[in-house]
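User: Before I run my own analysis I want an independent prediction to cross-check against. Here's the chain; please return only the structure tokens and, at the end, one sentence I can use as a sanity check.
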Amino acid sequence: VQPISRDFELPIRVGDKVDGLDVREIDVPTETPYESFEHAIMTEKLEDDGATIRNYYVEGLGEVKREFIMGEGADEFRVTSSLESIE
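Assistant: Structure tokens:
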């Protein structure tokens, strides 16, 4: 079972590693069906098969968006999971 949130030790900077994920961007505007966020932390991991996994975290909520990206350009295949609601 993979956790849906991670604990980040603040301050966090681009280039830091958290649980094997590289922090690529901070204060990233991120759109989800639930809400638009202005200050997400985006992490990235390159898998052995060449796929890229990107996770977007928001303070107080945890992970709000995840992207699986395989290939590039016209051959790119992308699967996105996003926060839709909080109950």
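Sanity check: The chain is about 0% helix and 55% strand.
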